[in-house]
Amino acid sequence: MNRFARGIAALGIALGAAGCAPMITQSPGEGLSPVNAVSEGGDKHLMLFGYDVVNYFTDNAEKPGDPSVKSVYKGVTFRFASAEHKKLFDAAPEKYIPQFGGYCTNGIVYGIPWGGNANSWVMIDGKLYIFGGQGAKDAFLLHPKENMALANKYWGEEMNGNNAFWQRSKRMVFRVPHWKSGEELAKEVAAAKAAGKL
């Protein structure tokens, strides 16, 4: 095998390996998939980088969970800042789980389960929605009703129960009809802020 062929083979193996981690980590396959999860130590499907999902509801703030205070629900590990938060979660887990698997809600509007930062979020009708950053949150809040309808549509029709890696790959190539680039969204947000609408 010549050097060029070996290089192509090595690139293929590297890309395959890079794709396998999120394919497995974000799709535990026990009824809660896909999820914005990472693998950390013994926690192979750690939700939202280990942030306490209950804290958003009780303290209206994001807070990292303690690795020694955790629960596993449908194959996904949730960490908590206190035993009290763990108890609340264990009594009603579906109440506290972030919507759309904890991915950026604005990404879900475009059919892309990707990103989601623990410190960029909003509560809507008693449910937790995560965003990839302030820009994504602002873009979503430009048209919250329309965007929520689109997010629910794409989550229900394409994502819930499926593999996030393949969904991302598909929608990065085959864009939704209402696709807007990050630059376009940023301009809309800036215009709305300048007009005092956001």
Description:
Helix content is 47%, strand content 18%. By secondary structure, the chain is α+β, with helices and mostly antiparallel strands. The protein has one domain (22-194). The strands form 3 sheets. It has a two-stranded antiparallel ribbon. The radius of gyration is 18 Å and the shape is globular. The longest helix is centred in the first third of the chain and has 23 residues, at 3-25. It is built from 9 helices and 6 strands. It has helices spanning 3-25, 55-58, 83-91, 93-96, 105-109, 134-142, 144-159, 164-173, 182-194; strands spanning 37-40, 43-47, 66-73, 76-80, 117-124, 127-131.
Task: Looking at this protein, list some descriptive labels.
alpha+beta; 18% strand; globular; two-stranded antiparallel sheet; 198 residues; 6 strands
Calculate the mean pLDDT score and round it. Answer: 90
**Judging from the principal axes of the Cα atoms, what is the shape?**
globular
Helix content: 40-55%
Query: How many separate helices?
Result: 9
